[in-house]
Amino acid sequence: MAATVARSQDPPTAPSPPRVLPGARAVGPTPFVPAATVGAQTAAWIARSASGIALLSFNQRVVRLALHSGTIDAGGSGWKWGPAVSAGERRTVVAAFNGGFKFAAGATDIGSWRQEVPALGRRVVSVRQNLSLLIDHGRGASNLGCLSCWGATLGGVSAPARSALGITADGRLIWAGGERLTTADLINALLATRVVRAVELDINPEWVAAYLYARRGRDTRPAPIPVVPGQPGVPGQFLHPYSRDFFTVQTR
């Protein structure tokens, strides 16, 4: 069983609104280029491969991850972050992306529960249970030939839309996603970014989506920019209530 864990940190102080850079809107293949800044610091980078995989890299010294509950999954009360980007987040949200499979703040880490996370002495803010690790100790999972081990695909196809979240040895968070991907495609894309641990998130076209959020002039309302080429997208683009859980990336 793998888990995505948010760890508490000192509360942020009056963050500057993020600024999206022209590289965020590129449509062709590109290596990692700066996609968003907060003040003078780069908060996010974007890359797109020739095969259509999109990747976002986040600087956790500048941004933090927040797990949102959807209206249905996981639903219920007691969640700090609800089914849409809240009014309080709209000035600070840098990006958002899909959550994981249906359910059976601070810096974020990824690892095997009670083996690699939570770290000793760190207070846990949120946990997202998921499948076994896609990448562990810098090596891809050994059971890639087992299609059902990585989630049921619509129509039984071997290469649906897939997404994953990984972490590098120096603490950068890497989101990867795209249409028509095998598990091996996803693993290879993440290993190329030096990810040491990763977990698969949602699969299938209806649920794989990521956005960067731009602002126009003095208007602080976020304007979503799709990250995955040709992605069907999520209704409301996480700015309106959504049925499933998802993550936002906020300035500190």
Q: How would you describe this structure to a colleague?
A:
With 252 residues, the chain is mainly beta. It has one domain. It contains one helix and 17 strands. β3 and β4 form a beta hairpin. The radius of gyration is 17 Å and the shape is globular. The mean pLDDT is 86.
Q: Which helices and strands, and how do they pair?
A:
Blueprint: E1 2-8, E2 19-20, E3 30-38, E4 41-48, E5 54-58, E6 63-68, E7 93-98, E8 106-112, E9 124-130, E10 135-136, E11 139-140, E12 162-168, E13 173-178, H1 183-191, E14 195-203, E15 210-216, E16 219-226, E17 246-251
Q: SS-based structural class?
A: mainly beta
Largest sheet: 7 strands, antiparallel
The backbone outline, from C-alpha atoms, is globular
In terms of quaternary structure, the protein is single chain
Report the count of strand segments: 17
Topology as H/E string?
Answer: EEEEEEEEEEEEEHEEEE
Q: Given the structure, what is the number of helices?
A: 1
Low-pLDDT segments: none
Rg from C-alpha positions? Answer: 17 Å
**Count of folded domains:** 1
Strand order in the largest sheet: 2-3-4-5-13-12-14
Helix content: under 10%
The average pLDDT is 86
Q: In what range is the share of β-strand residues?
A: 35-45%
Report how far the terminal alpha carbons are from each other: 29 Å
